[in-house]
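Retry 2 of 3 after timeout on previous attempt. Resubmitting structure tokens to design endpoint.
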């Protein structure tokens, strides 16, 4: 068996702790699949005293995550801090500059800076892996990039945010309004104290920009994604949708047209008979339509410690085993510029609810 594959983890919050536990419990299985042991050599986190569910007594601790990314004994850096700027970006740049492969779950950073980071990794012969950045435990990046490599995709769409899907599902099932359900979701831990990224479509927009790059072979373009959330969806809208044979879902949609590429996130009415209408609660689903394969549906848990850790582990096994494909399926020099279609250029059906003043 090859020498151990040594990793460093930046960020030991919910996902980071999940990764530690998975690597510990599945150590033998991962060693078999990677043909070498995967060992946590270093970590960086704010609170050393917190219980992460794994023994870290033999692991090097760093106060400075960027300094850890330069550790000469580390083969790969796993970035689980989050955020499009600041220390997360510094960790990735430092790791690549020092010859380390990188695994990240950072959708915001990949959406805003993924093309540049991919180019830097390519220049240095390194791997930038990000399966965990989109749809948690669903292997959607590998599915689009490798599983559908023989297809030209026409459309990629899906439920990309579990918080919004939980709120819409609960509004329909409980007859409660948006504000009540949001408050309950926050109590249950499904929504953050500041839920704006989830309910305003920003989180889904980040994920859609990444999917569009992988699916259509173009540079990541978060600025070209139209994002509209679910704050304005009322219980009445949900009732009307049910009467008409639909369910309201917050969808992210990337579609290739004669004019260019549409990228949009907004509430949609989907027919109740379609598979995506049955995706409820905190679950995610991604649908891809290819010219040879037809329609493919991937569904599962899109967030949480263990689903996301599962995606991180899959990337680590690929890197440890020497499996390597370009970050977005093509080398960055071959990513093609496709004009974006603004929301004003979208043609489709609309639902309009009107109130008539009493006469």
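Retry 2 succeeded. Sequence:
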């Amino acid at each position: 068996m090859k020498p151990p594959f040594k990793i460093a983890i930046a960020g030991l919050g919910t996902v980071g702790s999940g990764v530690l536990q998975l690597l510990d419990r599945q150590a033998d299985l991962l060693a078999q699949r990677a043909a070498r042991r995967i060992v946590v050599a270093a970590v960086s986190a704010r609170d050393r005293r917190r219980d992460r569910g794994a023994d870290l007594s033999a692991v090097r601790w760093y106060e400075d995550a960027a300094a850890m990314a330069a550790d000469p004994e580390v083969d790969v850096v796993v970035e689980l801090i989050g955020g499009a700027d600041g220390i997360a970006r510094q960790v990735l740049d430092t790791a690549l500059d020092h010859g380390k492969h990188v695994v990240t779950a950072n959708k915001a950073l990949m959406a805003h800076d993924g093309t540049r980071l991919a180019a830097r990794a390519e220049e240095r012969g390194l791997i930038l892996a990000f399966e965990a950045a989109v749809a948690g435990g669903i292997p959607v990046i590998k599915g689009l990039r490798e599983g559908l490599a023989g297809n030209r995709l026409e459309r990629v769409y899906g439920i990309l945010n579990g918080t919004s899907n939980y709120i819409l599902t609960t509004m329909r099932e409980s007859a409660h309004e948006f504000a009540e359900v949001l408050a309950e979701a926050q109590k249950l831990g499904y929504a953050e104290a500041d839920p704006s990224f989830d309910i305003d479509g920003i989180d889904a927009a980040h994920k859609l920009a990444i999917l569009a790059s992988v699916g259509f072979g173009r540079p990541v373009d978060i600025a070209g994604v139209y994002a509209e959330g679910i704050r304005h969806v009322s219980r009445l809208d949900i009732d009307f949708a049910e009467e008409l044979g639909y369910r309201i879902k917050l969808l992210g949609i990337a579609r290739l047209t004669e004019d260019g590429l549409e990228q949009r996130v907004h509430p949609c009415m989907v027919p109740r008979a379609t598979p995506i209408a049955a995706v409820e609660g905190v679950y995610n689903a991604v649908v891809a339509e290819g010219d040879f394969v037809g329609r493919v549906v991937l569904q599962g848990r899109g967030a949480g410690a263990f689903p996301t850790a599962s995606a991180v582990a899959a990337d680590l096994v690929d890197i440890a085993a020497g499996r390597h494909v370009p970050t977005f399926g093509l080398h960055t020099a071959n990513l093609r510029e496709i004009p974006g279609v603004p929301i004003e250029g979208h043609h489709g059906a609309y639902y309009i609810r009107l109130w008539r003043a009493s006469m």
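Attempt log closed. The mean pLDDT is 95.
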